[in-house]
Amino acid sequence: MNSQSDIQEAVPPNKQEEAYQRVHDWLEKRGLIRNVSAEAVERASAEKRESKVLALNRLGAVDDDDLRDAFCSVTGFPPCTVSISQAAQNHDLVKALSQSFLQHNRAIILDIHEDTVTIGLVDPLNQNAINAMSFALKRDVKVAVLRARDERRAHAERVDQHDAGWTPPEDIEQSDAVRQALEFDRDAPIARRVTSWLSRAIEQRASDVHIEPRSHSLIVRYRIDGVLQTIAKEPIEITSAIMARIKVLAELDLGERRIAQDGRTTIVVGGRSVDLRISIVPSVHGEAAVLRILDRGEVDLDFKKLGFSKPELDLLDEAMSWPHGLFLVTGPTGSGKTTTIYAGLEALRGKSLKVLTVEDPVEFHFDHVTQVQVATKAGVDFASSIRSFLRQDPDVILVGEIRDGETAKAAIQAALTGHLVLATLHAIDAPRAIPRLLDMGVEPFQLSACFRGSLSQRLARKLCPNCKAECKPTLSECAEFNLNPDEAIFEAVGCFECGDTGYRGRLAIGEGFKANDMLIEAIQSQDGIRKAAEEALPYTIGDDARTKLRAGLTSIDEIKRALSG
Fold it and tell me: Would you call the peptide bond into 473 cis, given omega within 30 degrees of 0 as the criterion?
């Protein structure tokens, strides 16, 4: 934080529009504004009564860091983090200031002195807020610029501190709590609580929200980077109201509590739409829900950005250019197969190809692809869809998962008739994909004629670059991972940026190969398939893990966890 003397005075009100335009120009000149419709920006700006640059940030078209840098450059105000002094926490005037006012103006009081108060603002051009705080606190205001996510997190934490162990008001009966949950009133207590869980989950990059009744409490957990973390413990009495609210959002049967239900909905967070896939199942203590967050804005569908090494990148890039044949992505549940196959769809964009997919479920929607959702009750399954696709003149067919012999045979037939078939398959490693298909009843001569290659993967958490610490491997780790005792590796520590986990984000660890003549002959004869596949494999998933370990991208503990499945 800069000293107070370094902080300039606020921009005069009559210069605000000009200053906002300069902020916009600063971002645009550097290519930091993503494509977004002018209509969406106008609507978001009008709804929040804020400038278009702030609306662009809410819509996800401008990153928080870039917005802060632009404001700092134009106004001359310094950047800051949320570091609240003891004086600011305990001063009576600060305590009396309305929390809703601070949240509305996206402001944090950082420090207070006898004559001055230092505030952090997401929008340092908000002269009304500056004047109001100067008047309320009877001091001159010094301004610094906050990142939007830091401001949101600070306010969420403050609300939670005052709202820990939330319960419905004492005068609200259980039936009234359920009734309120059924209303589309976002300000009702139940609705606010569910919304807060979802908003925080999206902000923390969670892939799922688990809401689970136990014997005496309702537990809320987030799955972040593949690991579950408990974030709230609520009274068991509100379970029915919470589930009722979730069912309303997903348009599920409110009266049905004996069987599982699945649904979808869309919510708007930070100005952008986020899809939710909802599963509710009955348990001995009441209904339990899992809300899968399908936030396209948080997933970069690019092979390189998914963390693949050069051998895997070369294989994937080549596979997307094959005119026909079968290419498989394998791994256990939760290993990132769908994301990789979706990155393949993104790589096909702009190539004037007819692409058809059959999925269960469809997680992300693509405007250059025809996607079909499996609906077993309606007779729409993987195998029948693939057979129907052959009459649609496709170039590429994506099969969400080969689960049974009928689907496997249909996929093979599509590959044999001149189409590129991309599919996922549950198999421990890349070589085992071939025996797996043969076990499903695929004819060896057909598989040998169309099989082009296989890639297997796992997901490992990436070390937080802000706090990771260098260390030396133990003797047992040297033996297990083929490391030198004096070789530098890194371990997780934990800090504010990563939520004290030591990790932030995930990367793929993989192995893959192309089919060669020796492997094709082995498939035809059904003799030595495993050996031929391993010889076609230029490196193993363990080799890739060691490479990423030595590069300081992940830790030994995380490698062990990722490869244990």
Answer: no
Indicate the SS3 state at residue 154. Answer: helix
Which of 224, 222, 211 lies closest to 281 in space, CA to CA? 211
- CATH 3.30.70.100 describes domain 310-458+506-538: no
Low-confidence ranges of the chain (pLDDT < 70): 1-14, 36-37, 40, 47, 96, 155-188, 270-272, 297, 565
In degrees to the nearest 10, what's the CA dihedral of 553, 559, 561, 563? 130
Calpha distance 279→250 (Å, rounded): 10
For the chain, give every domain's residue range.
4-148, 165-295, 310-458+506-538
Side chain identity at residue 27, one-letter code: L
The secondary element (H helix, E strand) that includes residue 396 is strand 396-399
Among all chains, which residue has been given the structure tokens 């244990």?
564
Distance, in Å, from the CA atom of 45 to the CA atom of 50, rounded to the nearest integer, reads 5
Displacement of CA 2 from its chain's centroid (Å): 34
Element (H, E) at 447: helix 444-450
* Number of helical (H) and strand (E) elements in the chain, helices listed first: 23, 18
Q: How many residues does the chain have?
A: 565
* Neighbour tally for 200: CB within 10 Å: 21
The CA distance from 316 to 310, in Å, is 10
Whether the model clears a pTM of 0.85, i.e. scores above it, the answer is: no
Fold for domain 165-295? Beta-Lactamase (3.30.450)
Quick: pLDDT tens for 176-224: 544 444 444 444 678 778 888 998 898 888 999 999 999 999 999 999 9
Annotate 170-232 with three-state secondary structure.
Answer: CCCCHHHHHHHHHCCCCCCHHHHHHHHHHHHHHHCCEEEEEEEECCCEEEEEEEECCEEEEEE
Look at strands 272-283 and 286-294 and give their pairing.
antiparallel
Calculate the CA 30 to chain-centre distance.
26
- Give the ranges where 30-147 is alpha helix by DSSP (H): 38-48, 52-58, 64-75, 86-90, 92-96, 99-104, 127-137
Helix (H, G, I), strand (E, B) or coil at 52: helix
Asked if residues 54 and 77 have their Cβ atoms less than 8 Å apart, the reply is no
Same fold, 165-295 and 310-458+506-538: no
CA atoms of 531 and 456, how far apart (whole Å)? 17
Query: 17-30, pLDDT tens digit by residue?
Result: 899 999 999 999 99
